[in-house]
Every structure is written in structure tokens, then in C-alpha cells.
Amino acid sequence: MLIHIVNLLKGQVTGRVESGFPERVLNLCAEYGIPFWELNWESPVAFTFTLTRRDWKRLRKLSKKIDCELTAQRWKGAPFFLGRIRRRYALWGTLFACLALLVWGSFFIWDFDIEGNETVSDQEILRALEKYGVAFGTYGYAVDSFDLRNDMLLEIPELSYIAVNVRGCRAYVQVRERIEPPEIISKRQPGNTVAAKDALVTTIAPWEGEKQVLPGTTVRAGQLLIAGVVENDFAGARYTRGMGEVYGRTWYELRCQVPLTFQKRRYTGVRKIRRSLLIGKNRVNLYIGSSIPGDTCDKIVTSEKWSLPGGVALPVTSVTEELRPYTLEEGRRTEAEALRLADLVLAGQLEQALGEGGEVLERSLGYEIVGDTMLVTLSAECEEQIGQFVEIPKE
Question: I need a labelling partner for 221 at 20 to 30 A (CA). Which of 14, 183, 329, 370 fits?
Fold first, then answer.
């Protein structure tokens, strides 16, 4: 493959040899070290072969010593292509203008590559960068990374580190998000652990203080579980932070309503494609008109950023909009579909009510249909952390 590319850059010629003794030409090539390939015998006195442009000229001079006729049948490669277009001045002018624009555009930022962010979105970072003068079309050598870093850390307090490095027409933004320090607990402030909700205590492990209930005890919301006031016969009452982990069984009963009838979309099958170009921040529509035909129409937008081979970004993005009209018609859910939808909704509510560390031990669904509505009830038995620390106010 590499040799083929090199030969195309040199230029290659497919020639035809006709002679009473054509093997003399092959002997001549062997004597003077002229390589050739794609040898094809047409007859005992004629054959075709391919060799480079330079070797073809050498062979024509050497073949004058012998009785043969050499004819070039096909030319291929860079020298012949450039020779055909050497007098097309408009094409050369356009080419040089494009190269000049490419070189000039490489001094500006046309693409951003953001790494390291998880909770802070790319859009938030780009808006903050634009606020401090770094956006699409900004002159790359005018970016002061040191001042920009200080401004960005003040603008987005969720970040602990940011670096903006401009290479060519792309800005590489590397960020590190701040890790929030744990809450500092003052051991001097006494308190109690109480039940956050009604439950059956399964495990109680006080870290400090004195437990007030045993596993297997049913407690009400607000009931004291771990006391921060400890009394003894020698020192009297001693105030501590009554803290610890208390797990208990809880029961939930959640309800929701699911309509059995709904409006569904039926696409007409007609599709309309609209294309446009984003050059920097300017939009060039390649279609006539800009409004969406009617309210009952979905618009699917896809965009593709242009780049040169090697990943060099260009300030051009092609945007394709697909319009799909539809009509609304009445649909009806089956009982299984309605129950499945209600199960998803109630499962999300139960997960939110349990919080982190909660576990569902047993669950069941029940429903009844009233008119065009399904009433669904989720009953669940769970185990979760029920302890809630409450400070004792100072007198």
C-alpha cells in the first residue's frame, strides 16, 4: 500500500510495447535497473506494463537503440494532475485563499474539550467562560490562564481547580470539583436521638449516651431512643451527645391514580428535512421559511461539527432538522400497562421516602378501577435508619 502511494506521488505511466522481439525491452529494463509491474502480454509481439514517470522517460531514450514502438496508454499520479490544473488560476487562487483562512482561523478558539466535571454541567462552565471573555471565536493568544482561573473559581464555587489550555483552535478545559468537607460536630452541644417515624426497632447501637429502648420495641415518631442526659449516683446528671444508629422496620402505603384513556400520537408518515450551517455564532439556513408547520409536529435536531483530518476543528457545524407531523387520537391502556406504569411511579416515591441505606423487605400492589381511572395502592415493609439527632437547647 505504501509503495502504491509513493508511485502515485511520483506519477506512473501504463505503456504498450510492440516489437518483433519484445523481450529485448524487458532485458533492457533488467540491465539498467528499471522496475515495472502489471505486465500483461497481449500477443507474442506486444505487451503492456506500468512504471514510474521518470523510468518511462529513461526507457524511451534507451529504446531508441532497439527496434520497438513504445506508446503511453494511461497516465496517473500527482505530477499529471498538477500539470492539468496548472493554468486554472481561479482554482489556485481559491486554494490559497482557503489555506490563508485556515491559517488565520487557527489563531481563534472554535471548539472546547471539557474534562473532569460530573455535577457541574458543560453548559454552566461554557457560560462562565463566555462571561470572562473566552467563547467561540476568541483570539487564542489573548487568553490569560492565570487570571481566568481565579475568576472561574469565584464564579463557580463548586470547582476547586480549573485550567484552560489553548492548542490551535481548540481550548482544553480541565476541572476538578470541590469535595465538600464533612460537617463538623461539636461534642459540647448535647442532644438526643429520637425516632424519625413510627417503626419496630430491630437494631440499636449507641455511640454515645444511653439507649432507652430494646430491639423488638415499637416506637412512635419523636420517641426518645438514645438519651444524651446520663445520670449516676456519684456525678449526678451528665450531658452528652446521645448519638448512634437505630434501624427499624417501617410500613408504607402509597397511592396513585392512572387514567386508562390518553391522547397518543399517530405520525402521518410525512417527513421534512431542513438543513443549516452554524459558522461561528452565525446561522445560515439552507431552506426557505423558518416556522414549524402547526403545533402537532415533532422536531428532531442533529448536529455535526466539521473537522479536518487529524482532528483539527473548523468553525462550522451542520445542523439537520427532521420535522414529523402527527395527529392526536384517543388511546386506551390495558390494565397490565396501567399497573406497570403505576408500579414505576410508586417505586420512585418509595425510594425517595426511604432515603439512603433503606431496604424493601416485602411489597405488594393492589388496584381497583373507577370509571376510566385505575386506583393503585402499594403496600411495603422496609428496614431503614430511623434515628434522628435533636440538640438539647442550652438554658
Answer: 183
Residue 67 DSSP symbol: S
Is the separation of the CB atoms in 245 and 208 below 8 Å? no
Residue 269's region, left for phi above 0, alpha for psi from -120 to 50, else beta, is left
Let me know: does 378 contact 365? Beta carbons within 8 Å: yes
Give every CB contact of residue 88 below 8 A, 6+ residues apart in sequence: none
Residue 128 is which amino acid?
A: A
Question: Residues near 215 by Cβ (< 8 Å), separated by ≥ 6?
Answer: 201, 202, 203, 204
Question: Quick check: pTM over 0.85?
Answer: no
DSSP designation for 180: P
For the chain, report the end-to-end CA distance as a whole number of angstroms.
Answer: 89
Q: What 3-state class would DSSP assign to 157?
A: coil
The β-bridge partners of 132 are: none
DSSP element (H, E) containing 313 = strand 312-332
Cα→Cα distances 109→34, 35, 171, Å: 51, 49, 6
Residue with cell 426518645: 224
Classify 236 in phi/psi space as left (phi over 0), alpha (psi -120 to 50) or beta. Answer: left
Question: What is the rounded CA–CA span in Å between residue 133 and residue 113?
Answer: 17
Residue-wise pLDDT for 86-143, tens only, equals 777 787 788 888 788 777 777 888 888 889 888 899 999 999 998 988 888 888 888 8
